[in-house]
Amino acid sequence: MKNVCFSLFFSFGLLFNWVSSQTGPERAALPPRGWNSYDSFSWIISEEEFLNNVEIVANKLKSKGYEYVIVDYLWYRKKVPGAYTDSLGFDVIDEWGRMAPDPVRWPSSQGGKGFSEVAKKVHAMGLKFGIHVMRGISTQAVNANTPILDISKGDAYVESGKKWLASDIGIKSRACGWMHNGFMSVNVKSGAGKAFLRSLYQQYADWGVDFVKHDCVFGDDLDLDEITFVSDVLKQLNSTIVYSLSPGTSATPAMAKAVSGLANMYRITGDDWDTWNDIVSHFDVTRDFATANMIGTAGLLGKSWPDLDMLPLGWLTDPGSNNGPHRTTNLNIDEQRTQMTLWSISKSPIMFGGDLRNIDNTTFSIITNPTLLEINSFSSNNMEFLKIASTNFRKRIVKWHSRGLEASASPILGLTKCAYSDTTGWITKSVDQGLEKICWKANPEHEYQTPFCLYKRGSRVAIDKEAATHRDQVELLSFSTSSVEVCLDATPKRKHSSEAIMRGSFFPCKRHENQKWDLYANGTLANHNSGHCAIVKYKQAKAIPTGVRSWVATGRGGEVYVAFFNLNNVKTVISAKISDLAQALPGKKLGPNSCKYREEWSGKDFGLVSDLIAAPVESHGSALFIINCS
Ligand SMILES: *[C@@H]1O[C@H](CO)[C@@H](O)[C@H](O)[C@H]1NC(C)=O
Ligand SMILES: *[C@@H]1O[C@H](CO)[C@@H](O)[C@H](O)[C@H]1NC(C)=O
Ligand SMILES: *[C@@H]1O[C@H](CO)[C@@H](O)[C@H](O)[C@H]1NC(C)=O
């Protein structure tokens, strides 16, 4: 709290006296809605691809309240061989160490125009333009030791007779955990650090940016000093920029209370991709934020919203990929509807992630469902409703499934000192056609489990002169569902999704030092870059939540919404008593034989409610009832 007070005081104070536009409309009065490039393009989107998508948003989605179009991360990175999500030295920066759009991917930025031409086009289509930015300052700017722009003078920042440089403000020990080579925090306690951040956000406002997604500052990466300062800068700029925080790994209502008033939306989970586990991991945390009254609470010059992340539906790419959209979502239709229903009834911002040039009618109808969009924007009293009953269709199978889950243990890769004796578990096995694999010793607690193995890619034997030890230099491949080969990667910590930890240890093969491993005769596997050794631990798999859930909300026309969610692996009948609903939503005239109801996804009209609302719900599916009482 001390920090918060300190910097609020400081920047309202003597140093700067900017014209403020605080009379503008309330920011994020409703949960923001739009399109974001990440799920379909990873980082590689071009201006043409972006504007094609923007045009479709304008023609087909704007009338449904989709308003923001957002370029996600690394728009400044050159798309050339060797560049990837955590590469170093491929970014376009200006003389003040600020990121500039890659002029090859973003031709209209040439001549120092940044995103201003793109923003103009977006505005001409009646939409709002957003960009993703990382925490602090880039490693590239620190290495180049660029001067810092003082926007009040239009010249280099000078304090105490000293011209301050990027290396004076970058804090190397606070590199972004999942983009270690890319960005680090800046010292916002120094005048130069403040000047640098101001020079960034003033430029975004000058470009015409309406929305900033600030990444690697929240959740496990919390940087409250930077959030506080940026929020303050945004308050004083003559702009209406909506401020969004990311990611949300391990975020809790207690942590969010420190930022909800400073921003307009903030993520409450890790990245959401198109797996059932990712969807399911949102139920509890979303409930906790609803219970803590965090939905639509006061935010930066307006409101703030817990954010469940983009909708990975339709035509997509893979996390962190160097490839554009090339596959359809892995979620089935029931799971897609469940996601849209939960996101809507918990009033999360809705940002569609699929490539709109290739959207199919089913996806389009899900993301434009008028009832859900109405609920998302205008419902109130949104909360989990506990008094529901359920009957499984095949109870015995459910039991069998859950026992199966408890028994399995997933391998987790770790890195440790090579001198430790527990590192010597790797053995080489040959498979067919000259292919070799390297496997970790059997798991003593789960001997029936197939051992954890990786396939050798390149290999050459080296002999160290001093130690005279043989080592086999290898790259290690894992199986991958996509066509991209993924290699075991020792880069410290990746941005991990809600679901997989294991997945974070593999990345598209790049032949860089973090993916090269030395296999020694004593059975250790040492990383070329860090020198640390890989070990495998078997962690008891966290059981995927099953059971049934329900959420309720009330509409602006007096209607009542009840959503049932079936997290079981079998079809389940879910029911709620009208008397229990009446208790949860007093004043709604809910009573037997006085209300009519219909279900949204089936379109079925049920007529008068007697004393129970009940429906069979498909595995991973949902039912959404609209109840109107006289
Ligand atoms: C602030 O923005 C408004 C509306 O965009 C504009 O009319 C005004 O000139 C701006 N003021 C300054 C000082 O830039
Ligand atoms: C998709 O919707 C469009 C517009 O409503 C329609 O013309 C087209 O036939 C539909 N396609 C399919 C495969 O249903
Ligand atoms: C295995 O061999 C390597 C290379 O000689 C050595 O650095 C490492 O400490 C050894 N580890 C163990 C546990 O013997």
From TrEMBL:
Residues 1-21 form the signal peptide. Keywords: Disulfide bond, Glycosidase, Hydrolase, Signal. It is an enzyme of class 3 (hydrolase). Gene3D superfamilies: Aldolase class I, Golgi alpha-mannosidase II. Its EC number is 3.2.1.22. Residues 548-626 form the Alpha galactosidase C-terminal domain. One of its GO terms (biological process) is carbohydrate metabolic process. GO terms for molecular function: alpha-galactosidase activity. It catalyses: Hydrolysis of terminal, non-reducing alpha-D-galactose residues in alpha-D-galactosides, including galactose oligosaccharides, galactomannans and galactolipids. The keyword Hydrolase applies. Belongs to the glycosyl hydrolase 27 family. This is Alpha-galactosidase. It comes from Cucumis melo (Muskmelon).
